[in-house]
Design brief:
One of its GO terms (molecular function) is nucleic acid binding. InterPro entries: RNaseH_sf (IPR036397). This protein is an alpha+beta fold. Helices cover 16% and strands 16% of the residues. The chain has a domain of 34 residues. The strands form two sheets. The chain has a two-stranded antiparallel sheet with strand order 1-4. Strands 2-3 form a two-stranded antiparallel sheet.
Length: 63
């Protein structure tokens, strides 16, 4: 659809209500988290964060 949406509002009491409902179940891939650093001294490599990891200051210091 290239970002295009078609929206139609219809009352549930309309006789054509059931016929007008179109659902698209588009599954999206699970997300992931990465972090990287950039400074005047250079850059770090990409670090992939494991699912469920608590990212806080200690995480950055330890990694």
């Amino acid at each position: 659809m290239r970002g295009e949406r078609k929206v139609c509002y219809i009352k549930k009491s309309d006789p054509d209500y059931d016929r007008m409902i179109i659902q698209q179940n588009i599954s999206r891939p699970e997300g992931f988290m990465v972090w990287a650093g950039v400074s005047t001294r250079g850059k770090t490599s990409l670090r992939f964060v494991a699912p469920g990891t608590k990212v806080n200051s200690n995480y950055y210091i330890d990694k």
